[in-house]
Structure formats: structure tokens, C-alpha cells
Amino acid sequence: EAQVTQNPRYLITVTGKKLTVTCSQNMNHEYMSWYRQDPGLGLRQIYYSMNVEVTDKGDVPEGYKVSRKEKRNFPLILESPSPNQTSLYFCASSPLRALGQPQHFGDGTRLSIL
Amino acid sequence: QKEVEQNSGPLSVPEGAIASLNCTYSDRGSQSFFWYRQYSGKSPELIMFIYSNGDKEDGRFTAQLNKASQYVSLLIRDSQPSDSATYLCAVTGGGISGAGSYQLTFGKGTKLSVIP
Q1: What residues of B are in contact with residue A88 (Cβ under 8 Å)?
Q2: Residue B50 is inside which H or E element, if any?
Q3: Rounded CA separation A101/B110 (Å)
């Protein structure tokens, strides 16, 4: 089954404790992206990657890191989480074509930073 | 800064009616347009995508695009209570290639309520 898998689904942690949210897709998609969703603000892009070892900032990259060492994986790293990073996070992927393609979303990760 | 605007709603329609959801975008060079449905606490689910001016129909859903007016809409015919959700309009940037044509900018969504 074609899917984007995120882990963990839920996490409560404390300020300053490094954490990683994993994202894996089995569709051989080149493009992967991370979004956060907050009430009243909608979905905002954090980072994206157009292929292995190619990453770039989205609209709200501060406080986050990513890496793309393999095509299928695109982890999101919070080196020193703060309460303002409490949010619902989604990973998404799509193939690269001449025109933008629909993105497939993971089930989401709800992070609470105390 | 690319912007995508949607009426936040809530939009309430009776069961069986047509629901009309609207979206405007600021980047005149935008190429691809998507409608996602999102139930509370769930991930966005693709409903429709459209690239060319005009209408595109898929079952009870019709997407309409007018690039000159920078306007895209979604019509839902024979609305059902199960259609009650938040509908997200998303737009990719201009350019046939390069990062801009893949970056999705989302509107904040319109909450639709279908009343039985």
C-alpha cells in the first residue's frame, strides 16, 4: 500500500530535549516536505527536499533541521524544542513532474512541548 | 509572499444542496491548484486538482479555475453530512521547473457543515 509513515504519532516532551520525527514513503517520490498546522494559521511549510541531499527552507524553518540521506526518508529534527513548536506536524511527498503534483500526506504527529 | 485566501466559514448547507467553496491566490504565475478535505485531527486528503482554465468534474465534485481572475472554486453537488469537513485550497508557484512549481501554499481552509 502506497503510504507516508510518520513516527511518533503523539509526543509530549520538555523544552530543550532534542527530538526527531521520522517520515518514510514507499512511493519512490523525489519531493518530500514538512508542514506544521496551527489553529487560525493553516498549514505552513517548514522544509522541503527535491531529492537526496537537496533540501531547502520553507516559510517557517526557524528551530528545525532536516536531512535527506535516502530517497525514502526525510526526518524532522528539533535540536532544542520550545513551547512555540507545539503543533500538529505533517510530512508529505510527491513525484517531480513538469507541473506540481498532488502531495500525499502522512497521518500527522502531534507534538506538545512543555 | 504568496497568499491564498479562503473564506473561513463556517459554510452551512442543507443535505442535498450544492456547496460552493471559493479561493483566490496572489501569484499570477501559479500553475497547479488543489483542493484537499481535512477532517478534524486528520491529514489532508486530496479531492481534486486542476491545471487549466475551465471546469473539471469528478463525481459530485467540480473544480473551476479562472487564471485571469486568480480564482479557483470547488462545487460539491448533492452534499452529504459526510462532506462536513474543512476544505483546503492549495496552490503551487509559477515556473515550469524549479522549486517554485512544487512548493504548496495553503489557504487557511473553509469549514463546511452539511445539515441533515
Answers
A1: 41
A2: strand B45-50
A3: 22
Q: What is the CA radius of gyration of chain A?
A: 13
| Closest C-alpha among B116, B57, B30, B47 to residue B86 | B47
Digitized pLDDT (tens) for each residue of chain A, 114 residues in all: 889 999 999 999 999 999 999 999 999 999 999 999 999 888 999 999 999 999 999 889 999 999 999 999 999 999 999 999 999 999 999 987 766 778 899 999 999 999
Is the bond preceding A39 in cis, omega lying within 30 degrees of 0?
no
> Which residues in B lie closer than 8 A to residue A98 (C-beta atoms)?
96-97, 101
Query: Best residue in B104, B105, B106, B108 to probe A by mutation, most A CBs within 10 Å?
Result: B104
pLDDT digits (tens, 9 = 90+) for B11-52: 999 999 999 999 999 988 888 999 999 999 899 999 999 999
Angstroms from A16 CA to nearest CA on chain B: 26
